[in-house]
Every structure is written in C-alpha cells, then in structure tokens.
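Today's session is about reading a structure prediction critically. Students often jump straight to the picture, but the first step is always the sequence itself: look for stretches that repeat, for charged clusters, for runs of hydrophobic residues. Only then move on to the predicted structure, which in these notes is written as discrete structure tokens rather than atom positions. Here is the chain we will use throughout the hour.
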Amino acid sequence: MQWTLVIPLKSLARAKSRLAAASGDGLRPGLALAFAQDTVAAAVACPAVRDVAVVTDDALAGRELAALGARVLADEPGGGLNAALAHGAARVRAERPDAAVAALNADLPALRPLELARALGSAAAFPRAFMPDAAGIGTTLLCATAGTQLRPAFGVASRARHSASGAVELALDGVDSVRQDVDTGEDLRAALALGVGPRTAAAAARLLIAD
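Below is the predicted structure for this chain, in token form.
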C-alpha cells in the first residue's frame, strides 16, 4: 500500500516555542525548519510513501520543502493543527478518493525511511491506526486507509484521544525514529542520540557553538 503523508507546519516564527529555553528565539526558527526538512526528506525517500503534502503558510518553509519534493498546500482554515490536517487530507481525497492518508509530525529529525515504512505497513491492516510519541503521551503518526476519515485529534494527550476515537495503537519495536518528536531540549538530545538528518545536525551544531 502506498500512502500520502500530510505534514502540518506552523509559521517558523511561532514554531517550537518550548525549545526557546534551550535555543533562544534567534536559533529556534532555523531549528524548526531543519526538523521539517529532515522529516520531509526521509518521508519522500520512504518506499511506502506515494507523495507528501505539507500544509503551511510559511513562505520560506514552503519553498524549502517543495525543493525536497513535497507538495505545499496553503493553510486555508488557519484554525490550528487539526484543522490543517483535515484540510490537507480533504484536498488529497478530493483528487484521489481512494487514497490512504497519514498525518505525520514535522518534528521528526531522526526519521528513517525504512522505519517509517514498517509503521505504515503495520497501519495498513487497520482502518485507522496511530503511533504514540516517545513520551507515550502524544502522537507522531495517524493513518487512515481508503474509505476512512482521518479524524485527527493531535495536541496534548493525543494518544488517549486517538485511542478513544477507535484508532488502533501500533505496538512496534525498532521504530524509535518515528516516535521521537522534538519539543524540548531534552527531546533534541534524544533525537541527536538516535542520529538526525544533515540539516538538523548543522543547526544543532550552531546551537552548541552558541552555548
């Protein structure tokens, strides 16, 4: 099964606010962009991914992610994360009603294409399925096969909400890169330990120099 991934990204000026304590506001937007670039690059390289749609109104991010092979959709609802995901999924299904659609976080800088393929392959067995984040509280991946609405419920404690909505939690070992999102300095250290993509590595090096 081939999937279309929908990746939401808020404006870089507002993204990753919880990283400010570790990075300062000067480096934070560049880190957020680097996370998204490495996430999209890995997603595009995944053998289970047909294409990638990024929902954002940030002009710089849109240009950079389009250069990596993503289709960029304007965040027309402007109503936050879940509205952006629903909009992206609807745009995809308006063109291909039978598309298998998955929402993926934009802050997975250690993402590995083959680990993502394993997660998507497991999700294909269920109408809706999700992957909890490394903290066990949130969600990094939400999948809906053909004929099933995505029904995103991201945000604080989204693991519990997605489970309550009937989505099946994917219990897989060896897919740490799909689960390790980055919201805090501690998260970034965990991602660096896994091995991040080149753009995040460069941005993190500037952070370490600045410290």
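Discussion point for the tutorial: Helices lie at 20-45, 59-67, 81-95, 113-123, 158-164, 176-179, 185-194, 198-210.
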